């Protein structure tokens, strides 16, 4: 009897030991699963293929060649029988030469004049370099510190931080929702504050902050700056660096007109970065189009003109911050029926060039599940935490 009890007792001990070991194994496996990010779901190959299609590449090549040769025809849509379809960018180009300096020779012609000949390399060199780099390369995300942060550091005399990212960055959009909260102190608490398109901050400090370390402008804003004498465009101070992105080759005329008069760095986003942003936004726009309409993705072009469709400057500023910052806070992105379109203007709506709803889908994924975003898997960076304040 006692022998039977001893056997049962030993059996119970063995069962208990194995139960504890099994529980520990399950617990450790669960912790490993929590540490590992979930795998990205399969991506629709058709959407990826269509998002990678580049529009107007042949026309862009001709524009670059004509600009370098000095034969670019602004008033005729850039050459070709009948010209290209007229867009808002065409309008800006057509009006650029008459208003750049009202009583002087147009800038594109002055580049050939002896007194302004020194400006020619400042125009041709970045244009050639930009076009040469036009290829898809997601690794550009890991190079943004070198391309953007280092020139700013050198300008401010900081030479020992070339390999570091900013500790925290605030990207401040221009939506009227900024007026709903007093985020000014929170915004100014970031190491770098990025503002968009010269939005006014005077009188709005308690809402939008007063600190600015980088001004991110679209080509239209830079064009307006280039029209003014000495290209004055320093709403946040002459030592604040400015980053512009290029949609068309002709925008380099504005860059050249402003570059020599800018005290702080006037930087151009790398064309590889532009192409990465373009693919991501187009993918999200295609995806949203299919999900909301039920139509084939090939019909997307009927809803969004591929000749003018592109990402917003806000989207690219957010992507830029992900590449140069350890933490990112985003303010003033989004819309509400009762909110103004822009907090500092009476503008009613945006030009129909962007798919903002698709970009909002992207922002949600950036905050909640960045591993599902296509084209970024090979970016070579660990995405920092990002918070969108509404």
Number of strands: 7
CATH topology of the domain at 138-389, by name, is sialyltransferase cstii, chain A
* Biggest sheet architecture: 7 strands, parallel
3D shape? globular
> For the terminal residues, how far apart are their CA atoms?
74 Å
Subcellular location: Golgi apparatus membrane
Keywords: Glycoprotein, Glycosyltransferase, Golgi apparatus, Membrane, Signal-anchor, Transferase, Transmembrane, Transmembrane helix
Family: Belongs to the glycosyltransferase 29 family.
Pfam families: Glyco_transf_29 (PF00777)
List keywords for this structure.
7 strands, 7-stranded parallel β-sheet, sialyltransferase cstii, chain A, 390 residues, 15 helices, alpha/beta
Walk me through the structure.
With 390 residues, this protein is an alpha/beta fold. It has a domain of 252 residues: sialyltransferase cstii, chain A (Alpha-Beta Complex). The protein contains 15 helices and 7 strands. The protein has a 7-stranded parallel beta sheet, sandwiched between helices. It starts with a helix and ends with a strand.
């Amino acid at each position: 009897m006692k022998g039977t009890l001893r056997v049962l007792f030993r059996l119970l001990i063995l069962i208990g030991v194995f139960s504890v070991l099994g529980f520990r194994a399950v617990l450790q496996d669960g912790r490993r699963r929590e540490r590992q990010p979930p795998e990205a779901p399969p991506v629709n190959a058709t959407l990826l293929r269509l998002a990678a299609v580049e529009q107007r590449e042949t026309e862009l090549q001709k524009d670059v060649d004509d600009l370098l040769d000095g034969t670019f025809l602004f008033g005729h849509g850039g050459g070709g029988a009948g010209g290209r379809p007229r867009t808002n960018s065409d309008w800006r180009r057509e009006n650029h030469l008459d208003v750049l300096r009202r009583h002087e020779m147009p800038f594109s012609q002055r580049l050939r004049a002896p007194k302004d000949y020194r400006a020619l390399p400042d125009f041709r060199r970045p244009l050639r370099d930009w076009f040469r780099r036009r290829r898809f390369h997601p690794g550009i995300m890991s190079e943004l510190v070198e391309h953007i942060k280092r020139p700013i550091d050198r300008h401010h005399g900081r030479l020992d931080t070339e390999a570091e990212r900013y500790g925290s960055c605030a990207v401040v959009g221009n939506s009227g929702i900024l007026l709903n909260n007093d985020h000014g102190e929170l915004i100014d608490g970031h190491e770098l504050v990025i503002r968009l398109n010269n939005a006014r901050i005077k009188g709005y400090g308690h809402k939008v902050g007063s600190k600015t370390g980088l001004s991110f402008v679209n080509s239209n804003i830079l064009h307006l700056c280039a029209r003014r004498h000495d290209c004055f465009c320093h709403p946040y101070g002459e030592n604040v660096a400015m980053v512009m992105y290029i949609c068309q080759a002709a925008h380099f005329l504005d860059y050249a007109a402003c570059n020599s008069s800018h005290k702080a760095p006037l930087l151009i986003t790398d064309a590889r970065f532009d192409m990465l942003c373009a693919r991501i936004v187009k993918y999200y726009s295609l995806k949203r189009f299919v999900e909301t309409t039920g139509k084939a993705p090939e019909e997307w072009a009927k809803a969004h003109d591929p000749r003018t469709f592109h990402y917003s400057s806000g989207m690219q500023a957010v992507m830029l911050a992900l590449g140069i910052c350890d933490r990112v806070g985003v303010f003033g992105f989004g819309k509400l029926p009762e909110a103004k379109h822009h907090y500092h203007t009476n503008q009613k709506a945006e030009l129909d060039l962007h798919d903002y709803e698709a970009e909002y889908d992207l922002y949600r994924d950036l905050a909640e599940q960045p591993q599902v975003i296509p084209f970024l898997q090979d970016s070579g960076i660990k995405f920092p935490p990002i918070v969108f304040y509404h």
